[in-house]
Amino acid sequence: MGRRGSRTQILRARAIGATSAALMRLPERPLIAGADSVGELWYRATPRRAAMARANLRRVCGWLAAERRGPARAQRAGTDAHALEALVRAAYRHQARYYLELLRAPGLTAAYVDARLEKLTPEVLAESEADERGVIYTGAHFGPIELPAWVAGHGHRPPVVGVTETVDDPELQAWFARSRTSTGIRLVSLDIAHRELRAAIDAGGAALVVVDRDITGGGTPVALFGSPAPLPSGAAILAAETGARVFFEAMWRVGDGRYRGWMREIPVPPEGRLRGRVTAVLEATARAIEDAVAEAPEQWWAVFFPIWPDLAPEPRS
Predict the structure, then answer these.
(1) Where does the pLDDT of residue 312 fall: very low under 50, low under 70, confident under 90, or very high at 90 and above?
(2) What would the 3-class secondary structure string for 20-35 be?
(3) Where on the phi/psi map is residue 80: left (φ > 0), alpha (ψ -120 to 50), or beta?
């Protein structure tokens, strides 16, 4: 038995569960409008958080403008303060939508996903699912991340294992685990992640790893949007150790309840020193993150957290 929470934590987790059950039964469009309103209030209530997003998005959009990539609104945000602020506000709305999607995740069905998700690279997805060896699916804190988890969990044969951060609330942690298990994956904590992910790969299953935030502090610096940022190396090490193929998934919102996504294979050097092979995988991963975020920078909700060591948030004037 796991550790039980306090009475308050138990009641809170039950309330979240009841809210989730209710939201799965309500029509989606008004819920999305409600989430957008919550995002606007969140933006006004958390100026320090907005400052972090502003600093990160300024770097991203400045790079996109210099490279002439991404939507026009993002390129303008690289040099125009008003366009940048509009993108920050949009980032809040999209993160609020993420929490709505998390609460509704247990209600995802194959019919919903088939009707709402436009797969731009179905042949790569089919190739990853047909591989009889274990594979590694990677992605970023970008767009509706419950959706790529669902696609991987229902498309690949088990075991499909993902990693979750630990929160200091065992009841909330248990609810997160139950919710995300509904996507077809089994979640494990960071302290046992390497062992469990490798076991899934060895069994011919899949490992799911988010690779754009260095949570533990042991990441490897690589160029990301033109500046060095530490990326977590766990998935790259697993790939080098096991020989598993690595596929990067990106999905983003293109309207109310509609999504678009692609997948690409990340090359893993078959020979050489471990450090060099890991760095090569991380550099290719950084290029994939850049390509994903270029589709819709406001949907990269890692911008609310530190990404580049040299970049401190600036207060809004």
Answers:
(1) low
(2) HHHHCCCCHHHHHHHH
(3) beta
- CB atoms closer than 10 angstroms to residue 100: 19
The whole domain housing 260 covers 7-304
Nearest by Cα to 284 from 265, 256, 310? 265
- Condensed to tens digits (0 to 9), the pLDDT of residues 161-206 reads 998 877 777 888 888 777 777 777 888 888 899 999 999 999 999 9
Does residue 316 have a pLDDT over 50? no
Give how many domains the chain has, as a whole number. 1
Residue pair 263/288 in contact (Cβ under 8 Å)? The answer is no
Residue pair 21/75 in contact by the 8 Å Cβ criterion: no
Is 317 part of any domain? no
pTM metric for this prediction: 0.93
240-289 residue pLDDT tens: 999 999 999 999 999 888 999 999 999 999 988 999 999 999 999 999 99
Looking at residue 173, its pLDDT comes to 80
